Amino acid sequence: MDFTYCEFPSTVSIDTFKAYFNPNNVRLPNINSKSLEQFQPETGEGQANQAKSLRHLVLDAIVSNWCELPLYRQLSRRQDRNYLLTQLDTQLPLQLLSSHIRDDYFWRRSYELRWRMAPFQPRGRERRWINIYMERHVQEFIENMQTGDYEQDGNVQAALDICATYINQLEINRLQPAPPGSESNDHIPLDYLLSNLPDLRRLRLSYSSKTAGIHYQTGCNQITARDILLLAKGLSQCHELRKFCLHNTKLLSYQLRFLAHSLDKGCHHLKELSMLHCAVGDAGIRCFLETCGKESFATLTVLDLTNNKITDEGAYTLSRTLVHVPLVRLVLRLNPIQSDGAAAIFHTLQTMPIRELDLAACSITESITKLFMMLMCQQKTLLSIDLSNNDLGEDFGKHLLKIINCNKMLEDLDLRNTGLSLAMRRKFQEILLKNSERKKHQAMKQQKRDRFNSMIKL
């Protein structure tokens, strides 16, 4: 059986194929430079010398001359298009390929041939592979660009002309440092790039340099005044941005003013804001919040400030502003806010629709016991709390064991490395498991009730 001329852009695993066909009697196509024939000896000269059909000779000619005559939509038969997708060279000019081909199979093949590992896509939330390819292409383009190679009307505009319409998510994990001997440590400007990505919904950014090598100089890993001004200018034009994450980049207080103003005035649909390992400090939190008003960040649901040197003073300042923000998830892990800062946060959360709270490794002690018990009894929306790596002690666990049954909503409580015994933590897990099972049972009953009501209406 001859499968050399693949008519469908999909494959199955070798084990599945062997379950239905005898590999000794089958010839497979050579796709992505892989074929079962590499592992099987020739079974006969007749198969090896089999002549190609006229149709496949014509298609091979189209593939060979595709740069001069890019035919794809003109092929009426789907089988011909599929054959073209499996044989077409992925190293052809990107502008030529993107203007003629949108098929997911081809762009996934191109991605895997260029970067080997394909990203995981959750079932039901699959994205188009041409978008994934273009996003990775732009990421690589930005991360590898030297500051002296930046040309706004040249290479940057050329990349935007090809890729801009496909960019929904952008992740930049590093930027090249300024060359040695430069007067400043400025990185490549991002204002023009961000301003010309109209459909950008998610941005993850770091100004750190991972390949400084022998050209390392003091300050090459820091964001400069020019960098923050241009970043703020670009963010103010990202009107569709939903998620913004700035990580591993030290931020000074005055820089946070520009950042807060641009996010507040430009990103009207921002839902998630993350500043991770940025050494913001109490002064930075104060400057950021002073720029905001009561109606600022009205759509924000997730705030992640992991490892920013925030103390109890910064936590108190933050708690006064959070009242006006509809947060669902708050992360303050690895910040030494201590018990006083946690008390301010707990007091604010009693009137908020918060669902997830992360205060791991925040130097909280057992003095917070009373306020935490009040939070457990009064808060009716919390589903997950992380208090791991805090010095809470056994007495905290004993008091919590008495009142935890009052809370019927909580599903997850992380108390590892808090001084509680393993037996006590298992008791908490059993109680919370009952909460989860009870809510599942109630959801099933409600589903049956709704189905019954719909049948009555019919």
From TrEMBL:
<dbReference type="InterPro" id="IPR027038">
    <property type="entry name" value="RanGap"/>
</dbReference>
<dbReference type="InterPro" id="IPR001611">
    <property type="entry name" value="Leu-rich_rpt"/>
</dbReference>
<dbReference type="GO" id="GO:0048471">
    <property type="term" value="C:perinuclear region of cytoplasm"/>
</dbReference>
<dbReference type="Pfam" id="PF13516">
    <property type="entry name" value="LRR_6"/>
</dbReference>
<dbReference type="InterPro" id="IPR032675">
    <property type="entry name" value="LRR_dom_sf"/>
</dbReference>
<dbReference type="GO" id="GO:0031267">
    <property type="term" value="F:small GTPase binding"/>
</dbReference>
<dbReference type="GO" id="GO:0005096">
    <property type="term" value="F:GTPase activator activity"/>
</dbReference>
<dbReference type="GO" id="GO:0005634">
    <property type="term" value="C:nucleus"/>
</dbReference>
<dbReference type="GO" id="GO:0006913">
    <property type="term" value="P:nucleocytoplasmic transport"/>
</dbReference>
<protein>
    <submittedName>
        <fullName>Dynein regulatory complex subunit 5</fullName>
    </submittedName>
</protein>
<dbReference type="GO" id="GO:0005829">
    <property type="term" value="C:cytosol"/>
</dbReference>
